[in-house]
């Protein structure tokens, strides 16, 4: 079975996906139904996600992270070829992409060879526009992405995207400015969005202790979105990030929340202690393990 793999990059405000138009004279005058996600053939014995990341970079010159991907499954093209797709949040300048090229004999049987870009133009499209322009078999990827986002996808975000919820849920006695930490810009911040609203957050800060160099902080979910597993997905991203950074994890957990961390492999170290203005906490530590590396997000 011939298998291609690609990436459906998406962004918010407004929700849009990046699609690409194939290069070359055959596609030059084709538009509706001709566009594609950036993709290419999977080499023999190559990891499918690794192939998708490689092809995306080759066709756009944009790098992608190692983790945080949503598996959008496969689709079968009219040609019989199968396409596997993964999605991840990101933002690149569609007008600035630089695609690799391939040699093509054109016109056919003419003996004349030209260099053709894999992609000649890319565009950010909202769902309706993307569905209209994409190859019909690939339109399902847009629908599956929308479903995944509805379930809750943890994304890497800047610190500013987490501050309002951090203050509202965890530090209502402080101003947003008072919740800021010394190493905000050095931390990895994750959030789950519901439309344009941030509904769950968590961060990993450099904060060396006798137990680990990285610390999970500011885990929070809005009341209306609790008991959906969103906190667990955020924590999975934190654990994956720490492992890729070569560190174990520690946290100072509120005593009522300690069971949540225990279920994710943390262990209590020492006796409970009081955090002024917040309440009793326990120090918890999680030793990294091979299974921590999760490039694809678990949504079930």
Tell me what the structure shows.
With 300 residues, the protein is α+β, with helices and mostly antiparallel strands. Strand 14 and strand 15 (279-286) form a beta hairpin. The protein has seven helices and 15 strands. A seven-stranded mixed sheet has the order 9-10-11-12-13-15-14, sandwiched between helices. Strands 1, 2, 3, 4, 5 and 8 form a six-stranded mixed sheet that branches. Strands 6-7 form a two-stranded antiparallel sheet. The protein is elongated. The model has no long low-confidence stretch (mean pLDDT 95). Helix 2 (127-133) runs antiparallel to helix 3 (139-151). The chain has helices at residues 48-60, 127-133, 139-151, 160-170, 176-179, 230-244, 258-263, and strands spanning 3-11, 16-22, 39-41, 70-76, 82-89, 101-105, 113-117, 119-125, 154-157, 188-194, 197-206, 214-221, 249-254, 267-275, 279-286. The chain has two domains: 3-151, Nucleoside Triphosphate Pyrophosphohydrolase; 154-292, Gcn5-related N-acetyltransferase (GNAT) (Aminopeptidase, 3-Layer(aba) Sandwich), CATH 3.40.630.30.
Alpha-carbon distance between the two ends: 28 Å
The total number of structural domains is: 2
**Total number of helices:** 7
CATH architecture of the largest domain: Alpha-Beta Complex
Largest sheet, if any? 7 strands, mixed
3D shape: elongated
| CATH third-level topology of the largest domain | Nucleoside Triphosphate Pyrophosphohydrolase
Estimated structural class: alpha+beta
Strand order, main sheet: write it out.
Answer: 9-10-11-12-13-15-14
Q: What pattern of helices and strands is seen along the backbone?
A: EEEHEEEEEHHEHHEEEHEHEE
Supply the CATH class of the largest domain.
Alpha Beta
Structural Rg: 22 Å
Return the average pLDDT rounded to an integer.
95
**CATH level 4 superfamily of the largest domain:** Nucleoside Triphosphate Pyrophosphohydrolase
| Poorly predicted residue ranges | none
Helix content: 10-25%
List how many beta strands DSSP finds.
15
Beta-strand residue percentage: 25-35%
